[in-house]
Amino acid sequence: MYTFAPPLAPERLPELLRLMPKAELHIHIEGSLEPELIFALAQRNGVALPYASVDELRAAYAFTNLQSFLDIYYAGASVLVTEQDFYDMTRAYLLRAAQDNVIHTEIFFDPQTHTARGVAMETVVKGLHRACADAQAELGVSASLILCFLRHLSEEEAFETLEQALPYRDKIIGVGLDSGEVGNPPEKFARVFARCRELGLHLVAHAGEEGPPAYIWTALDVLKVERIDHGVQAIKDPALMQRLAQERIALTVCPLSNLKLCVFPELAQHNLRQLLDAGLAATVNSDDPAYFGGYMNDNFTQVFAATGMDARHAYTLARNSFEASFIDETTLSRYIGQLDACFESFR
Ligand code: HPA
Ligand code: ZN
């Protein structure tokens, strides 16, 4: 925990949370597709949806676990067909993130969801990348791309996906692992992650969202990932907690996602505060904001209100988000300078 933050009247905390510069390190771009945009793209592309209206679609967002969400999330992504669709989706997210004072973001995308429907890897990557480049130029937001392999599919299919992505290697900073966790442990993807490591890609993986602490251990020891996405189940394993703290391995925690997917019954029972107080490098992220009821600042303000965290936790979370990111040292110093200036202005 950092102690940099000034003493702050509790009623000013939400303002500080909104204004502080921050990085988002766990956002699935397909999970930023708002129902209105899903319907607009379905119409533009002549894709039939199994929902009659935006309201009917939104009413289906009542999830009981990860898989119940993934079924609807993959159906929503089926409206993405052209490069412009991928651009428009990413543009909308980046505009929304900038409103929340997100100044850096590392965006997950699921190419297999699209290539399985006959959409070319080129279409996906070019649309996403053009939106990222425009965000840097027009919004001053730095954005980079992390390709996620779907863990319910085979390692062979992950290798094919990597092969298709290699012509766009310069537009991708790393790879991740997402989709249904339980029954698909990290070690299933040992060889493809080893290959990505040889290629100089950064490595992350979802682990310990619904799955056991053992999956966090193998993500670290077999896949050799640099960050753990979610990781909240680590709390069940004291030796793992100690290791994560000692090695400063970041967890990209997603409070509203965990609430909506019933990982915790109430936000007041979320363990983010315990993770931080135990010295882990936790961060706050939105995961799939269009589905889980909130973007970055909603996640911050709601989890702070529910768990009673203070300005020191806020500073620590924002600082962790920059330090756990894959930006270069010069940019890191600049962003921490902006963060410190924001906190100084509350003194
Ligand atoms: N977990 C696993 N896979 C996902 C998620 C998630 O929270 N969001 C989108 N794909
Ligand atoms: Zn996720």
- Helical element count? 17
Quaternary state, please? Answer: single chain
Instruction: Find the CATH topology.
Output: TIM Barrel
Distance from N terminus to C terminus (CA atoms, Å) equals 19 Å
Kindly give the count of domains: 1
Share in β-strands? 5-15%
Order of helices and strands: HEHHHHEHHEHEHEHEHEHHEHHHH
Major sheet: size, sense and barrel closure? 8 strands, parallel
List the ions, cofactors and other small molecules found in this model.
Answer: hypoxanthine, zinc ion
Q: Please identify, by name, the CATH architecture.
A: Alpha-Beta Barrel
- The shape is globular
The residue-averaged pLDDT reads: 97
Largest sheet, spatial ordering of strands: 1-2-3-4-5-6-7-8
For CATH, the homologous superfamily is named as Metal-dependent hydrolases
What is the helical fraction, as a range of percent?
40-55%
Counting DSSP E segments of at least 2 residues, the number of strands comes to 8
Class based on secondary structure composition and strand pairing: alpha/beta
Structural overview:
This protein is an alpha/beta fold. The protein has helices at residues 13-19, 35-45, 54-59, 66-77, 83-99, 111-115, 121-139, 155-165, 190-198, 213-223, 238-246, 255-260, 272-277, 289-292, 296-307, 311-323, 329-344; strands spanning 22-28, 102-109, 142-150, 174-178, 202-207, 227-230, 250-253, 282-284. The chain has an eight-stranded parallel β-sheet. The mean pLDDT is 97. Helix 1 packs antiparallel against helix 15 (296-307), helix 5 (83-99) packs parallel to helix 7 (121-139) and helix 8 (155-165) packs parallel to helix 9. Strand 6, helix 11 (238-246) and strand 7 (250-253) form a beta-alpha-beta unit. The protein is globular, with a radius of gyration of 19 Å. The chain has one domain (10-344): Alpha-Beta Barrel (TIM Barrel), CATH 3.20.20.140. Hypoxanthine binds at residues 28, 31, 66, 73, 178-179, 206, 209, 257, 287-288.
